[in-house]
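User: Please go through the entry that follows and flag anything odd:
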Amino acid sequence: MTGTGSSKKVALVTGHITVDWSIARTPDPHAARTQSSSLARASWQRGGAARLGDLIEAIGGQLPEEAKGTWLVKRIEEPRGSISPDDRRYHQTFAIWSPYDHSSKSGPRRSAWRVAEFIGSDPGSDGAALSRCEADPETVDLIVIDDADLGFRGRPDVWPEAVKRPSPRCWAVLRMSRPIAAGALWEHLRNTFQGRLIAIMHVDDLRRTEVQISRELSWERTAQDLAWEIMHNPRVNALSSCAHVVVSFDGAGAFLLSRTAAEVGAPAAKYFLFFDPEVIEGMWAHDHFGGMVGYDTCLTAAIARELMIDPANRQIQRGIQAGLAAVTRLHLDGYVSRAEGHEGTQLEFPIEQIAREIGADAPNYAVVEVQDPVRFITQRQPTAPHTSDTSFWTILEDRHPDSLDQVAQRVVLEGVERALLDVPHGRFGNLLTVDRHEIESFRSIRALVGEYCSQSRQKRPISIAVFGSPGSGKSFGIGEVARSLLPGVIKRLEFNLSQIEDVDELHQALHQVRDAGLSGSMPLVFWDEFDTALQGQPLGWLRHFLAPMQDGVFQEGQVVHPIGPAIFVFAGGTCERMESFGHGLTEEQFRAAKGPDFVSRLKGHVTVMGPNPVGGDASSDPHHIIRRAILLRSMLSRQSPQLVEKKSGLELLRIDAGVLRAYLQVSRYRHGARSMESIVMMSQLSGKACYERSCLPPEDQLNLHVNGLEFLSLVQQIVLTEELLERLAAAAHDVFCDGKVRDGWRYGETKSEQAKTHPLLIPYDQLPELAKESNRVTVRAIPLKLSMAGYAMLPSRSNQPPLEFPGDDLEKLAQIEHQLWMDAKLAAGFKLGKPTPDDPKRNEYLVEWDQLSDAIKQIDRDMIRGIPRILARTGYAVERVKR
């Protein structure tokens, strides 16, 4: 124990004890061929509550100045001295450790000692591994308990007095393992430390306690599963009575439930997710092989540190950030090697290094407040046509609810990693997505294929269906998922069933699949357009795949051929979603085509959304612009790498703002991602350092893949500088005045319908600021108004007559004009009513279009008729876009 003096606060660390044996294994360069090629040395160290106490003691010596020296850490003193593997006083664990290469961005490659294999444990005698803190202080300010269910939780006779009868100000931090929220210790703590208990656990221990929490699908789903289970599952909902509950995902992230005082005075819970955007749980250590002992020790100690600094204003989120940083450092650097040479290596937990990392206070993980799954269901409406689940919360939507255009531009210019630092990424080889739907679908397929390939001697293929619009990237997506899982093993085969005329050709294709499997590869077989007709029969191919899918065989005449292991991917060509598979057929026709039998043999499906809005409605699928941005960045970086400039640690893509706007905002790509790629390839980019407007193909070539006129109008869209905005606002005011004068109005200090006088019939520069801003609003909205009615702005040609809007379009645009004007007025604080000197922010025309008089409607029609004249001042004309 450390520290002296009666004025010090006391932190007590107690719980179970283990002796952790590390068998360090290294290659022996001097070994003969007939001898063992490895050197091995076994060493032990203090584990469990003993290791946790050592770390908290080290942290106590590194506290900030205001807290330093005020704490006395009382920890477990044993085991010390000489310990043997058959010492029955302690529970003992055994693991084999090996050096793993670790590459650092800031330094050379080096080795890190990590666990190569957890061998197992040897339980001690009854009463072993219990707390043996020699001093049992009466007054304690902080109790930290390490409970691995090795006997301590069920033995009140060995609990310190401070645990049994705590002081009113004492806090308790409990690191628990499975079964969660069970046992005498838990019941005592939650009833005794009301409002002063923090529970810490690993997500896998929680999963083994009769709860349902998704694994490796998406951060959003896992976080909401946790929130629901902790609050509502009777098996573990007692956890919700804690002040804080922390669930760790090793170095990938953590979940936090915190109790706060609600407005009505009753306790309410908030949920927070800390996550690494680049990975999901289970994949964090993918690039750094080997396991580790002590992850939760780091997290527990970091949270205890926050209570030592200021329990009244505890910064639990800061503690979690520090703990996760320490977990990362522990894994990357590994255990400390104390002695090397012909005698082998002795390994130790890096106490001092981890204590310094915890005290560094450097947040590295994204944090988001998790939407309550129950409240979210009742408050939200579906945001996209591809889901009817009103509880489908996404971090992307939370982070960027109203600025997707700007975010998409940053994705193209700076890259996803820079533009979306705080949004989960799904990366599978060369495939990158930030859409939760796609992330969950691809990860579920990855897990399915991984489980299939991990089982030896598979005799039949695994079958997966993939849907999406033409050109959405169906085969690319599944291919990258499979290759990222089995690099160097996959052999891709692709057959388009719409181009195969009979079953004999299908058998030839299946022979190719067999040959690929016999060669040692894993065949990844794409059956493209599997839902097309065969000889006039809808879904005619389905019946011929039933035996290969179910039994792993196909029959030619009297000969039955086994297929062997393979991944069958059925890519839809006529339907974009699984829900629409068989749409247009009656139930009887679908059964006759063997549709239900085919579906029953599928092991999973995925919908790839592509660059176009799902269902064709951009407002209900706003995140399509992010998907476009990711695709465009990837295409340009691969095909024209000279456009990317490395500057100050960034990789900036050089592209004209108008060209970028057109790629992101054009209403539709005729052939999905293939059209985007075609436009890039048709552009004259060879030798160019910037993607300029002059690089684009002409309109008739663009028409192959987009509406060429719409695309070019977006390229040429006006950029309203401050000076240009004032010029156009003045032109809009002139249009207003011309219409009034035409109808017999004249200037007057007050507005009068009878006298036809109006105070705004004056030059623009004499208008009050509110009136000027109203004209600016009108001008800013011109591109939007035109787009909504199917028109576009393009540079005018010489002698081009001004456009006259036809009657229906004129009326539609006038209604849009009024609605936008009204929205701007309401946003500026105006209310319905006649203005007065005391209340000038009133307007009598803040009503729906149908409630306006024809004279007022005429003002909006005049403004629309005047748009071509307003734009002519900047060299632009209005043209109709053929949709």
Remarks:
- DSSP finds 29 helices and 32 strands in the chain.
- Confidence is low (pLDDT under 50) at residues 1-5, 104-108, 261-266, 376-390.
